[in-house]
Design a protein that fits this description.
331 residues, alpha/beta, UDP-N-acetylmuramoyl-L-alanine:D-glutamate ligase, ten-stranded mixed sheet, 12 strands, pyridoxal kinase activity, PyrdxlKinase, kinase
């Protein structure tokens, strides 16, 4: 399917959804209050989108309260020629969390973690999660084990054993890409069979829900990509969706934040939750890609930043997308 044909199909689907969605329904969704509060520990950029800059807005848009701690604070993401900023230390994280604890305001329904730049900081995150789960056994820990992609690390390799030995046993939901999945389980992930075997290993370590977001090379084509979702003791789902033009920073962070929303909204129905996340992501990436293509003559990284604000309707109300195929492939 050509990109033009796909765009037309998406536009038709959006138009159908708009006809179904009355203004009163949209207002009701925007006004709906949720008794949900997320502690999000991720990176932050002043300009553009990565880490918390991608995650906080979608969560707030859906009515989640979000307290966020920035593991790093940079001027911009690493795709630019120059990056300036600061890194939070494990001692500073401990002080921030101590302040929350002393005031008895460390009350969270969810903890969300993403990029972390050093081992001791990640170890301190484990301490924070343990304490929150001790206080409230129903707190859901959603972890994106950010280490690398496409066969290479862009964080210190020393993070991997900490994720494997400390973080994974605490996680309720884990969202690795194929490279990270392979590193965590000790075997490369090239085929669907590799992926499913490794997912079962994570379940055996206690992770209830695993979503493999991308990168299973043997299962994708030039036209389509796949991700996989599995719930321990239940079903495994394969999602096939169109490959769009461009690779953009922050898509994984946005994906995971929306997953928090829809798993909560749908009481853990991972099949429908991931489908809705993918529908929003397809719209976001398509809008970003179209804008970047129009601005290609400027040759600027600033033109490739996610069109997150411009996609707010699609983040809040995922359109019907017939191009996303969901298959139950195992148990």
């Amino acid at each position: 399917m050509s990109l033009t044909t796909f765009i037309r199909s998406i536009r038709s689907a959006v138009q159908r959804d708009l006809l179904k969605m009355s203004s009163s329904e949209l207002i009701a969704e925007l006004e709906r209050e949720r008794d949900r509060r997320v502690l999000s520990i991720q990176s932050h950029v002043v300009h553009g989108y990565a880490g918390n800059k991608c995650s906080v807005f979608p969560l707030q848009l859906h009515g989640f309260e979000v307290d966020f701690i920035n593991s790093v604070q940079f001027s911009n993401h690493a795709g630019y020629e120059h990056v300036k900023g600061q890194k939070l230390t494990e001692k500073e994280l401990e002080e921030l969390y101590e302040g929350l604890t002393l005031n008895n305001i460390n009350n969270y329904t969810h903890v969300l973690t993403g990029y972390c730049g050093n081992v001791t900081f990640l170890q301190k995150i484990a301490d924070v999660v343990k304490d929150l789960k001790k206080k409230n056994g129903n707190t859901t820990f959603v972890c994106d084990p950010v280490m690398g992609d496409n066969g290479r690390y862009y964080t210190p390799k020393e993070l991997m054993p900490v994720y494997r030995d400390l973080i994974i046993p605490l996680a309720d939901v884990l969202t690795p890409n194929a490279f990270e999945l392979g590193e965590l389980t000790g075997s490369p992930i090239e085929t669907e069979e590799d992926c499913l075997r490794a997912v079962n290993e994570l379940h055996a370590k206690g992770v209830k829900t695993v979503v493999v977001t991308s990168g299973v090379t043997g299962a994708q084509t030039n036209e389509s990509l796949r991700c996989y979702a599995s719930v321990k003791g239940s079903h495994v789902y394969r999602f096939t969706f169109p490959r769009l033009v461009g690779q953009f920073v922050g898509t994984g962070d946005t994906f995971t934040s929306l997953l928090v929303v829809w798993l909560d909204e749908l009481n853990g129905d991972v099949s429908e939750a991931v489908k809705r996340v993918l529908a929003s992501m397809q719209c976001l990436i398509r809008k970003t890609s179209s804008y970047a293509q129009l601005q290609v003559d400027t040759n600027s990284r600033a033109m490739c930043e996610l069109r997150l604000i411009q996609s707010r309707k699609d983040l809040l109300w995922p359109p019907t997308c017939d191009q996303i195929q969901v298959e139950k492939i195992g148990q």
